[in-house]
């Protein structure tokens, strides 16, 4: 056993998935500080060869998935003798050993390779596979959702197009993998049968079958700690949940909606399994709808002839523009787009974004998406569409591009990705709903954008945009998850149809709009000079009034947030399809709202537009290297506030930066 000396150890615990810190957060933290460094030192001593003499001066970062019950168990052993083994540490030690081997493998010669996928784990435990070792972002996201017990909720929000593309892409992954070992098949078959028996109540339409197949894939990968989908598993799922072999995957209409078509195969061909049929038909549909982008000159010639329509479904697989060179440095006038990465990474948005690009086969378009996201928080365009060179330079730096992304390509991205956004919407709204305090009211506002009216739900704490839909009925899933909260409805939104729909759905509301002749709402005492009404017949007047007093200020903040993000800052002004713009409004709102909430919630009411105003002119220097993007901020109060509140932590796995880590520093 080697002697290992650690000069400095920093322990950071990041909470994911909505679980609380427990009844004694301080005890939990003390337990982690007491046990985890000791376990790390122990495993490093076993890992490093005894005859090795080596010093490592660069920081070594080890990411360790751990469950709350494991931390609590460690906390309960805080005062025990460290020389004795921890009773709950066996599986934890294996995880630490595997993670340390990955982190140190390139720095220590002779460290034995560790095959993460072969580390045994108990059913229901956290997967030991680190995110960096996953071959598929889709599979990693599905398994993560399964582990966090939100998989069915997330998949329920998937559009049919998203279900089709994720399913077909996973089948392609399985087809490219070698056959799994025969010994594992009986156990896997029993697991599939067990999971299938628990899904008999699901709907039997195609979308329902696709959801069940994805649930089984995620659950089996989670149980067996697999990093990819084996062909054996696909065959078992075909038996449990067959798909009609005559149906093809998806075709895309002018607006991107899914449609059905029959797969016309030769009678002489052998019969296809449902998975083979989906793969075959998906490629047929794709070849019928895609037109490849070749050289920029060809694109420009088409545009000059005015034959381009943003409604066309065009491939964006070719490089959209040149990436920034290694060793280059940029000075930017606003660091705000980079500040969004931390909050978005914390809620799993960046991982889901990588999965969406993978499923839709749009990986090369990731810098275009980053450009559009940056435009959401930078200076608004003049006349609604013209951006100055400084704004374009900021967006280029954020997207890691050598030259600005053409507006035509951004418009095509908006069309191509519009039907694949539902997983991203579900990630954003799911995180906000999980963090919502059910004792606080939510606000329902009808807003106007370039494509008409939308209904948007805001969390009155922090003015977070939870979700935005064209149809009121589409808000029902989110409202059902927050049905303990009172819904505030301002007078401009409180039409008879809106209030009637809320009442029929069993959602409690309070409004400052007087009832019409056919409405029989309960009158509550005045709020200042105004009266309010509610359909809540059980809560006391004081409870209703306590919530209703939030209505004026919440409406004012929501109106300002929507004006600044949705109306003044269109991400892609020339795009006919506004669904990407609406989604980016939600994403930017979460990032800005998180910054505002972390910094100022104890001193004032917070809202996303406060961060937009106070950090929009914070400059930075951006340096690009082979493995990192270093963002240097000027020293000052704003830097100290961001640093002290944990908003400048490293961000990994940014989809458009090719695996480089974004690091924040002062300078």
Question: Key features?
Answer:
667 residues, alpha+beta, seven-stranded mixed β-sheet, four-stranded mixed β-sheet, 25 helices, 10% strand
Question: Can you describe what's shown?
Answer:
This protein is α+β, with helices and mostly antiparallel strands and 667 residues long. It is 44% helix and 10% strand. The protein is built from 25 helices and 13 strands. The protein has helices at residues 25-47, 68-76, 90-104, 137-147, 151-156, 160-176, 185-197, 206-224, 231-240, 274-289, 296-304, 336-339, 341-346, 349-360, 366-375, 389-399, 407-417, 422-435, 476-481, 496-504, 541-548, 551-567, 579-600, 608-615, 637-644; strands at residues 251-252, 258-259, 329-332, 442-449, 452-459, 464-469, 487-489, 509-511, 522-527, 530-534, 620-624, 628-633, 661-666. Helix 4 crosses helix 8, helix 6 packs across helix 10 (274-289) and helix 7 (185-197) packs parallel to helix 9. The two termini are 42 Å apart.
Strand percentage lies at 5-15%
C-alpha-based Rg, rounded: 26 Å
Q: What's the count of strands?
A: 13
What is the average of the pLDDT values?
79
Pick out the low-confidence regions.
78-88, 106-134, 246-314
Taking the alpha carbons of the first and last residues, their distance comes to 42 Å
Morphology call? globular
DSSP helix fraction: 40-55%
Quickly count the helices: 25
What structural category do the secondary elements indicate?
Answer: alpha+beta
Profile the largest sheet: 7 strands, mixed
Spatial ordering of strands, largest sheet: 6-5-4-7-8-10-9
């Amino acid at each position: 056993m080697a002697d290992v000396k650690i000069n400095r150890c920093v322990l950071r615990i990041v909470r994911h998935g909505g679980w609380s810190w427990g009844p004694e957060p301080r005890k939990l933290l003390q337990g982690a500080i007491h046990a985890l460094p000791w376990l790390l030192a122990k495993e490093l001593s076993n890992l490093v060869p005894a005859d090795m003499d080596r010093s490592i001066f660069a920081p070594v970062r080890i990411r360790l998935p751990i469950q709350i019950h494991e931390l609590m168990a460690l906390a309960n052993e805080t005062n025990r003798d460290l020389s004795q083994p921890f009773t709950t540490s066996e599986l934890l030690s294996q995880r630490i050993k595997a993670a340390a081997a990955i982190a140190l493998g390139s720095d220590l010669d002779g460290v034995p390779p560790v095959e993460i996928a072969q580390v045994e784990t108990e059913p229901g435990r956290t997967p030991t596979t680190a995110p960096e070792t996953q071959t598929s972002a889709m599979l990693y996201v599905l398994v993560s959702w399964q582990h966090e017990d939100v998989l069915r909720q997330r998949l329920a929000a998937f559009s049919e197009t998203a279900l089709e593309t994720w399913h077909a892409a996973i089948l392609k992954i399985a087809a490219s993998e070698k056959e799994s070992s025969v010994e594992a098949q009986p156990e896997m078959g029993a697991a599939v049968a067990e999971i299938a028996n628990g899904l008999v109540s699901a709907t039997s339409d195609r979308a329902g079958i696709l959801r069940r197949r994805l649930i089984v894939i995620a659950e089996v990968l989670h149980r067996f700690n697999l990093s990819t989908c084996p062909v054996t598993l696909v065959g078992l799922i075909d038996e449990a949940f067959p798909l009609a072999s005559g149906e093809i995957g998806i075709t895309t209409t002018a607006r991107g909606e899914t449609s059905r078509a029959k797969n016309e195969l030769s009678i002489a061909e052998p019969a296809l399994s449902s998975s083979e049929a989906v793969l075959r038909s998906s490629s047929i549909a794709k070849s019928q709808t895609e037109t490849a982008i070749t050289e920029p000159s060809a694109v420009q010639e088409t545009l000059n002839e005015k034959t381009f329509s943003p409604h066309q479904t065009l491939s964006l697989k070719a490089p959209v523009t040149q990436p920034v060179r290694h060793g280059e440095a940029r000075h930017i006038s606003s660091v705000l787009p980079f500040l969004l990465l931390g909050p978005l990474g914390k809620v799993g948005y960046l991982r889901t974004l990588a999965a969406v690009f993978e499923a839709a086969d749009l990986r090369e378009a990731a810098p275009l998406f980053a450009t559009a996201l940056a435009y959401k928080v930078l200076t608004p365009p003049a006349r609604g569409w013209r951006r100055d060179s400084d704004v374009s330079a900021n967006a280029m730096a954020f997207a890691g591009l050598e030259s600005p992304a053409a507006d035509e390509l951004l418009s095509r991205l908006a069309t191509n990705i519009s039907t694949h956004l539902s997983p991203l919407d579900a990630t954003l709204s799911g995180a906000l709903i999980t963090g919502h305090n059910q004792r606080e009211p939510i606000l329902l506002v009808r807003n106007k954008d370039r494509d008409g009216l939308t209904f948007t739900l805001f969390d009155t704490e922090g003015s977070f945009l939870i979700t935005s839909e064209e149809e009121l009925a589409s808000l029902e899933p989110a409202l059902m998850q927050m049905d303990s909260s009172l819904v505030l409805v301002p007078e401009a939104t409180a039409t008879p149809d809106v209030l009637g729909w809320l009442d029929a759905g069993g959602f409690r509301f309070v409004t400052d709009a007087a009832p019409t002749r056919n409405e029989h709402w309960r009158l509550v005492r005045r709020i200042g000079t105004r009266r309010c009404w509610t359909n809540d017949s059980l809560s006391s007047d004081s409870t209703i009034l306590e919530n209703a007093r939030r209505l004026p200020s919440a409406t004012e903040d929501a109106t300002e947030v929507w004006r600044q993000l949705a109306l003044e800052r269109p991400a892609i002004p020339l795009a006919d399809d506004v669904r990407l713009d609406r989604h980016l409004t939600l994403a930017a709102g979460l990032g800005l709202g998180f910054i505002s909430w972390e910094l100022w919630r104890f001193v004032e009411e917070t809202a996303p537009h406060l961060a937009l105003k106070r950090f929009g002119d914070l400059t930075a220097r951006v340096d690009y290297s082979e493995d990192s993007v270093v963002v240097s901020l000027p020293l000052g109060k704003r830097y100290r506030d961001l640093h002290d509140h944990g908003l400048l932590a490293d961000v990994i796995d940014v989809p458009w930066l090719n695996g480089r880590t974004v690091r924040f520093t002062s300078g």
